[in-house]
């Protein structure tokens, strides 16, 4: 599948991302490489694999669950934070992601 800079621009627009001309030129071959890699899956013989339908029957009905969905007591804040690597003031402290 041929990926063009116009495709990258459309993806950026759909994702509401502002990208520069330089970023668009850099992303085009990278995305093309990723898609080529994923397209290798088309070479697999899946004729013997039963399709997964996400917990539904072919008619769209839910499949039986393994267990009843019951309300159970939670761990509680103190127990949950006991194994946390860096708890702070009753919360999980995690690295900043920007």
TrEMBL record:
Its EC number is 6.3.5.-. It is an enzyme of class 6 (ligase). One of its GO terms (biological process) is translation. One of its GO terms (molecular function) is glutaminyl-tRNA synthase (glutamine-hydrolyzing) activity. It holds the Pfam family GatC. Residues 59-70 have a biased composition (Basic and acidic residues). The keyword Nucleotide-binding applies. It catalyses: L-glutamyl-tRNA(Gln) + L-glutamine + ATP + H2O = L-glutaminyl-tRNA(Gln) + L-glutamate + ADP + phosphate + H(+); L-aspartyl-tRNA(Asn) + L-glutamine + ATP + H2O = L-asparaginyl-tRNA(Asn) + L-glutamate + ADP + phosphate + 2 H(+). Keywords: ATP-binding, Ligase, Nucleotide-binding, Protein biosynthesis, Transferase. Residues 51-70 are annotated as: Disordered. Heterotrimer of A, B and C subunits. Belongs to the GatC family. HAMAP family: GatC (MF_00122). Allows the formation of correctly charged Asn-tRNA(Asn) or Gln-tRNA(Gln) through the transamidation of misacylated Asp-tRNA(Asn) or Glu-tRNA(Gln) in organisms which lack either or both of asparaginyl-tRNA or glutaminyl-tRNA synthetases. The reaction takes place in the presence of glutamine and ATP through an activated phospho-Asp-tRNA(Asn) or phospho-Glu-tRNA(Gln). NCBIfam families: gatC (TIGR00135). This is Aspartyl/glutamyl-tRNA(Asn/Gln) amidotransferase subunit C. It comes from Pyrinomonas methylaliphatogenes. The lineage of its organism: Bacteria, Pseudomonadati, Acidobacteriota, Blastocatellia, Blastocatellales.
